[in-house]
Amino acid sequence: MRGVIVTADDFGLHPRVNEAVVLAHCDGVLSAASLMVGAPATQGAIACARELPHLRVGLHIVLADGYATLPHHAIPDLVDREGRFGSSMALDGLRFFCLPHVRAQLAAEIRAQFEAFAASGLALDHVNTHKHFHLHPTVLALILDIGREFGLRAMRLPNELHGSIGLRPWIALAKARMARAGVDHNDRVAGLALTGRMDEGALLAVLAQQPDGVLEIYCHPASVGTGPLTSSMRGYRHADELAALRSPAVAGALAASGAMQGGFADIFGHQARAAARVRA
Prior knowledge:
The structure is a single chain. The protein is of the alpha/beta class. The chain has a single domain (3-279), classed as TIM Barrel (Alpha-Beta Barrel). The protein is 42% helix and 13% strand. The protein has eleven helices and nine strands. The chain starts with a strand and ends with a helix.
């Protein structure tokens, strides 16, 4: 493996998630986190990230099953009165593609999320989407176009190890579009097939495979609490994922792999290239 990026998604969703990100980064193998800019605990997440200079933070764009950044009156065809997206991704994807007025609202919301991230003052390490909605060609095209203005340099390619054959055409299309846009991406990802169940055994099994190229392992850690974080996360084993990220066995396996560790900026040399431009 050339490099391994270990990412926590849904940063800002809940104080329990924020706490887990801090613990897993300071006392474990977590190298990156993907921030939900419209979530209830976003400001707490930003405050945590400012105290962790080596944690690479990216934008986790939410266009389904979560809260928007813009109010309902600005994007009435995307969200309910409370400003929340629905969970019918197939229907929404069809509307994004077929209806220009819906697509215009989608573009406005994507831009608003990039703007909210920029306002945090955090360096943009990467971009991905909640539930991998950027596999939709319209969503990806808008992210690549708008993201260019905000320093987008890397995205997640949800190319799961031993993943679904049915997703391969969409992954190939996304990969080609990212390449044309000059946007770096991981080669493989682990976390989709076992969403909410990336425990110690799962992480060790992934690292034992030693896939070529850059591997991103993503997970959903949270500290112990009562009840699910959201209705769609019933059954997620957040505390087991946090324990796995802090496991000495996982840290040992990662070190033994010899792979570079860090965020996208570290693996793909964005930090070094930026420093070189400053020196020039």
